[in-house]
Amino acid sequence: MPWLTLFQVATVTILIVSLLEFALLFLIFHSLLAQQTLSILFAPPLDMILALAIAGSIGALAVFIMERFFRRIIINTANLWGLVLCLIIMIFVRLLSPFPSLFLNSSQTYFIGIMLGVFFKGVKYWRR
Known about the structure:
Layout: H1 3-30, H2 32-41, H3 46-69, H4 77-96, H5 108-121
């Protein structure tokens, strides 16, 4: 398993998500409309659907980054599972930082969404 490369992919993915979070937090602090919109989106039952969608997008983004920028890796089912593990570890590392997080979460719903995103985007690599 190319663990170093998988951790690099996961790190780049989480950094991109963190930058998007900081931009959204900046927007929320300066816009009343954004605050109201997010309070509606993060209220039940939309919060679970939103968590699945965000986590799935993060998983798909990780596979996209691996396809485009880390071409030396041969993507197969084992590497996709390794990528899921690396993403989960990097999310825990990010959650340990003192900075607030809107998108990153450590719930089971979130981890299922990451798996769905990784394997939905990487469906063409399952048989390799």
